Amino acid sequence: AEPLFFLDYFATGKLNVDTASIVVNGIARGCELAGCALIGGETAEMPDMYGPGEYDLAGFTVAVVERDRMLTGDAIVPGDLIVGISSSGPHANGYALIRHILKRSEVQPEQIQCGDTHLAAALLAPTTIYVKPILELLATQSSQIHGMAHITGGGLKENIIRVIPNGMGVAIDRHALDLPPVFEWLQREGKITDEEMWRTFNCGVGFALLLPTDTVDAATNILAKHKLSSRVIGKVIQATERERVYID
For residue 80, which of 206, 247, 237 has the smallest C-alpha distance? Predict the structure, then answer.
């Protein structure tokens, strides 16, 4: 669906204009990346609800798609390949666990090297907004994309399977998952099992496409034009048993 407009809600104890300005500028930048309009919102002061410096932020968007162009998953068949598109980091998922790990480790995230940056920057990296490249893919290959999944809460284990029809499952190649340094640090420092990593984090895959084999190259070329790296991470399989997600 193509996003049309976004509205935000900003609540705080006492409005700090500088803070609110930074937040709204960030929202506006996100809307620009998504190609939708920021048409207003609401700001509320509630001194009994929020302490000094605290604020709460929420928002929603309205989007539109022609009914005959909706992806329902009905076209997905065994043998379709799963193309994983790179994430910029945790994408706002799993932060309760991240904060627990940081608190227990007692490290200064600004002083921990994490790839070519430091841990604090890696954890605060803005979520990648995939709208424009995905809309371009749909416009050029609308009959070829069989399904899509945004990897949010629930990670790789719980998001892709939601778009797969009954009687089928997904087999993901764990060796195709190129775990970014921030996730390597979290897993090592938090002593997190692979299973919990796959169920909590995107593990470097922020968005997944389900495609016929012969359209994968065309899709990855369009994604590369938008400076998004991607790779085949698995395939759709027949799955009649209760377990429908295999990561091996």
Answer: 237
The contacts of residue 139 (CB under 8 Å, 6+ apart) are none
Alpha-helical (H) ranges within 117-180 are 119-123, 131-141, 155-159
List pLDDT tens digits, range 33-91. Answer: 999 999 988 999 999 999 999 999 999 999 999 999 999 999 999 999 999 999 999 99
Give the helix/strand (H/E) hosting 28: helix 17-34
The rounded distance, in Å, linking the Cα atoms of 160 and 11 is 34
pTM: 0.92
Amino acid symbol at 28: A
Say how far apart CA 107 and CA 84 lie, in whole Å. 32
Report the interhelical angle of 17-34 vs 131-141 (nearest 10°): 10
